[in-house]
Amino acid sequence: MSNERKIYSVSEINRKARMVLESAMGELWVEGELSRVTVHSSGHWYFTLKDAGAAVSCAMFARDNATVLFHPKDGIKVQMLARPSLYEASGRYQLIATKLEEAGKGNLQEQFEQLKAKLAAEGLFSNDRKQPLPVLPRKIGVVTSPTGAAIRDIINVLTRRFPNLEILLAPVTVQGPTAAKSIAAAIRYLNKRNVEQASRLLPGAAGNKRDACSTFSGAKRERPIDVMIVGRGGGSIEDLWAFNEEVVARAIFESEIPVISAVGHEIDFTISDFVADVRAPTPSAAAELAVREKGDLEDEISLYDRRLKQSLKTMNQDFRLRLNRVAHSYVFREPAALVKQYRQKIQSLEMRMGDLLKLEARTTFQRLERSNVRMAHLLESGVRQAHQRVDELAMVLRHEMERKAERDRQKLQGLENQLRMLNPLGVLGRGYSLTRKPDGSVVRSKADVEIGAAILTQLADGKVISNITEKE
């Protein structure tokens, strides 16, 4: 018999124990009460599951607890799908949870998932049909219990953010067997009310009728509802179940008024949240989403006012610069040179026109002479016809020359009129004058001349030569 013995390390023993435990039992459902719940910064949950006779340590990793629809806390009775395991570092036996439900809630959770899948397939959760919230609502409809904390929170937040806002409450029951139908009816009623108010603006519409809604504002005239908040405060899954009913989901989907769903606390999710145009984590947060702070809007308006004034100021400066550039352009600085250029151009055109007329006349007469020589051999009748043709051609030539001369005179007259309009010397006829130094430069400031110097003043009807005796 050998004296050798097998020596195991503690790590090996714990590893073997873990493997035996995991392979022997597999996953199983276990029921118990939560205790010592810890939510780690990594997202993992650590807690103890206990009953009257025993307790076991448990862990649920972040990838698995993301699907849990309630917030774990001490004292809650749960059903858990888990596999037994052993933490090798400490040799501690534990359960690793993959699913966690409140005891007795498994059937409700199944109903929730089935309805969610059905409505998603029908497109009720599609972002394409969600309506944007109005920028500045004047009237907000609220579908909730008139006695719950939710309506008080909503009113407090709305009146603080925008004091003259109109709030219309459609009172409903938010839990119990009749709650879902009550909520759906209120949503449809507020939409119908908007349609009826619009029809009252048409000729022959009936007068206003009283309704079951309560208005928390002293508004003197009816306005349409711009946005609707549907929700209630926190509670258990049974308390919130009315907002998981299909009738409520379809009423929200059909609403022409944008809907903010505000059910329970931040960790609570209902079917209403998925169908609504916007989901708010709490009723107070819904009120904050519905309307901006009045002070923020006033600051934004002030900013736009300052930007508009600055834009107008910039435009004014730009127009002044453009006017200044035009005033100092070549036309106004050297008007005489411009007139001289146009006169030279006119003279050149006149010379060219004279040369062309002479050439045309000479060519015509030469052609007539050749025609006369050829026609001299023709019969007398041919000669008379030729003379008549010559006379006709001469008349046509004179007529064309007169028309051309008239067109050129009109063109010349038009150019002279343009020059007259552009000539800044025309201003002198209205009592202004133009002062120059002997070298011809314009006097723009008293600093340009010295006492005793001679100046030449251009008036409308002539020039005046003066000597400077005093400057003020």
SSE map:
Elements: H1 10-25, E1 28-39, E2 45-50, E3 55-60, H2 62-65, E4 77-87, E5 92-102, H3 106-121, E6 139-144, H4 149-161, E7 166-171, H5 179-200, E8 214-215, E9 227-232, H6 246-254, E10 259-263, H7 271-275, E11 278-279, H8 283-290, H9 294-327, H10 330-333, H11 335-375, H12 380-422, E12 434-436, E13 454-459, E14 462-467
How would you describe this structure to a colleague?
α5 (179-200) runs parallel beside α6. The longest helix has 43 residues, at 380-422. This protein folds into four domains: 10-104, Nucleic acid-binding proteins (OB fold (Dihydrolipoamide Acetyltransferase, E2P)); 111-201 and 208-292, 3-Layer(aba) Sandwich (Rossmann fold), CATH 3.40.50; 330-422; 429-467, no CATH class. It is of the alpha/beta class and 472 residues long. The model is unreliable at 204-211 (pLDDT under 50). It has twelve helices and 14 strands. β4 and β5 (92-102) form a beta hairpin. The strands form three sheets. A six-stranded mixed β-sheet has the order 8-7-6-9-10-11, with helices on both faces. Strands 1-2-3-5-4 form a five-stranded mixed beta barrel. Strands 12-13-14 form a three-stranded antiparallel β-sheet, with no helix packed on it. It has helices spanning 10-25, 62-65, 106-121, 149-161, 179-200, 246-254, 271-275, 283-290, 294-327, 330-333, 335-375, 380-422, and strands spanning 28-39, 45-50, 55-60, 77-87, 92-102, 139-144, 166-171, 214-215, 227-232, 259-263, 278-279, 434-436, 454-459, 462-467. Helix content is 46%, strand content 19%.
